[in-house]
Amino acid sequence: MKKDKIFSLLVYLFAILAIVVMFGIILSVFSEGLPLLNSIPLWAIITGTEWYPTFNPPSFGILPLICASLLVTFISAIFSVPLGIGSAIFLAEVAPAYLRNILKPMLELLVAIPSVVYGLFGMTVLSGFIMRLFKVPLGLNAFTAGILLGIMATPTIASVAEDAIFSVPVSIKEASIGIGATKFETLYHIVLPAAKSGIITAIILGLSRAIGETMTVIMVAGGSPIIPHSIFDPVRPLTATIAAEMGEAAHGSLHYHALFFIGAVLMTFTYVFNILGEWFRKRAIYRQ
Amino acid sequence: MRRFHHLKDKFYIFTVSILTLISISALFIILYFVFRKGASVLSMDFLFRFPRNGMTEGGILPAIVGTFIVSILSVTIALPFGLMVAIYLSEYAKDNHLSSFIRVSINNLAGTPSIIFGLFGLYFFVNYLGFGSNILSSSLTLAILILPFIVRTSEESLRNVPSSYREASYALGADKSTTILKIVLPSAIPGILTGIILSVGRVAGETAPILFTGATFFIKGLPLSPFSEFMALPYHIYALMTEGTQPDRQVPIAYGSALVLIILVLLINILAIYIRNKKRVKIE
C-alpha cells in the first residue's frame, strides 16, 4: 500500500515537471530577451530595417528578419499545400491499400531525413539548378530555401490531412455516389467540406514547421539581413540569425539579449500557429 | 454531359497521383544525390580514422562516436521522465484542468522550434547551472527536445493495452502500481521500444540544439568524459559546408558524413517498422 502511494506521487511529480519544463523554456527565453527593451524601445526593434549587431553603434532592427521568415514560409506553402493535400487525397481516397502501405512509410522517411542533409542538398544541387533555371545571379536565396522547406513540410501536411479525410464517414460518401454524383463531385462537395477543419490544421502545422526550421535556411537562404524585394533575394530568417550569430555574441552583451529577443518573437509566431491549429482541430472533433 | 463528368474524374485522379509522385520523388532525388556523392568517399578509413589537415582529409570517427554517445545519452535521460508522464496521462489522469494543462504543455513542447531548445540549453544548462558547453549540456537539451515524442508514443502503447489485463490484475488483489509495473508496462514494451528507437534516429539528426551547447568542429581524440566537447555528424556537415577555405575537398567529406548519417537514420527507421510489424503479428 505504501509502495502504491510513493509510485503515484512520483507519477504526479513527473507530470507536473513537464509543465515546469514548458514554462521554464518560455520564461528563460523571454527573461534573456526582454532586457534588450531597456536599451531599445520595442517599436524601434520591430520596425527597424537595419540589423547590424556588430557595428559601432550597433543597430537591432528585426523587420528584415521577420520579413525573411514570412517570405520563406509563404514560398514553402506554395509547394507544400498542393503537394501535401494532393498526396493526402490520393492516399485516403484513390490509392489501393497495398500502395498506401508502401507510400505512407516513404512519406515518413521524408520527415526522418535530417534538416542539415536538406541544407547540403540545397547548397550543392538545388541552388545551381535554380540559378540556371531562372537565370538569377545567386542560387542561395529565399526561393531555394522555400522549396526545401516546402518539401520538408509536405509529409506533415499530408499525414494530418489524410487522417482528416480518412475519418469522413464512408456512409456519406456512399450516399453521394448513390444519388449519381461522380467521384470528383463527391470529393469536392462532400469529403473536402467535411474534412475542412482537419485540413486547415494540417496546413497550419506545416507552416509552423517551416517557420521554425533552422539548419536548412541558415545553409540555403543566403544570409543577407535586408528586406527582400524579390523572391530571388538572399535573406536571413529569424532562426538562421540566432543560429549564425549566437556563437559570436558575448554572454550578457546587447547582441546576446537581441538574439534571445528574436527567439521570443519566433516562439510567439509558432505558438500563435499552434494555438490556431489546435483550435481548428478541436472544431473538427466537435463536428464529428 | 456524362462523359464530361467522367473526364473530370480522370483529371482529378491524375492530378492527385502526380502530386503524390512529386512528393515521393523528392525523397528519392535527395537519397540519390547523397548515395552517389557520398559513396565515392566512403571507406573503412573514412569510418574509423580521425580527420586530418584541418578537416580536408582523413575520416570522421569522432563525429560518429559523438553522435552515438549524445543520441543514446539524451534518450536515456528522457526515457524515465517521458515514461512517467505517459503513465500519468494513460493511467492516472482524470478529465480535469491538471491533465489538460499537462497535455497542452507537451503539445507546445512538440511544436517548439529546435533552435529555441538550443537557446534554452545555452541559458539554463551551459550558463545558469554552469555545466559549460559539453556532452552533458547537449544531451540534456536534446532530452527535452525529444521528451514530447517519447510521451506520445509511450502513452499510445500504454493505452493500447486492453483494460481486461488491468481488471484481471485488480481481481487478483494487485494494487495500482503493481498492475502498472508488472502487467501494463511489460505488455506495452514493443510500442515503447519503437518510440525509443525512433527517438534515437531523430536526435541523431538534430543540429540546432547542439550548436551552442557542446558541439565543436574539431577535437583531439575521442570524447570520453561528459564534460568534454564533442563532434557530431550533423554539425560536422554544417561546419564543412559553411567554414573552412577548401570547399572542393570539404564538400565530398560532407557528403560522406551525410551518407553515414542517412544510413544510420534509415536503419533505425527500418528497425522500428520491423518491431512494429512483429508486434502486430503477435497480437493477431
Word description of this protein:
The complex is a heterodimer of chains A (288) and B (284). Chain A is mostly helical and 288 residues long. Chain A folds into two domains: 2-33; 44-287, Orthogonal Bundle (MetI-like fold). Chain A is built from 13 helices and two strands; from the N terminus they run H-H-H-E-E-H-H-H-H-H-H-H-H-H-H. In chain A, strands 1-2 form a two-stranded antiparallel sheet. The longest helix of chain A is centred in the C-terminal third of the chain and has 34 residues, at 254-287. Chain A starts with a helix and ends with a helix. Chain B folds into two domains: 2-39; 45-283, Orthogonal Bundle (MetI-like fold). In chain B, helix 1 (2-39) packs across helix 10 (247-283) and helix 6 packs across helix 8. By secondary structure, chain B is mainly α. The mean pLDDT of chain B is 90. The radius of gyration of chain B is 23 Å and the shape is globular. Chain B has helices at residues 2-39, 44-48, 61-92, 97-111, 114-128, 135-159, 163-171, 176-204, 233-242, 247-283; strands at 51-52, 57-58. A two-stranded antiparallel ribbon of chain B has the order 1-2. The chains are: A mainly alpha (288), B mainly alpha (284). At the A-B interface, helix 1, helix 4, helix 5, helix 6 and helix 7 of A face helix 1, helix 3, helix 4, helix 5 and helix 6 of B.
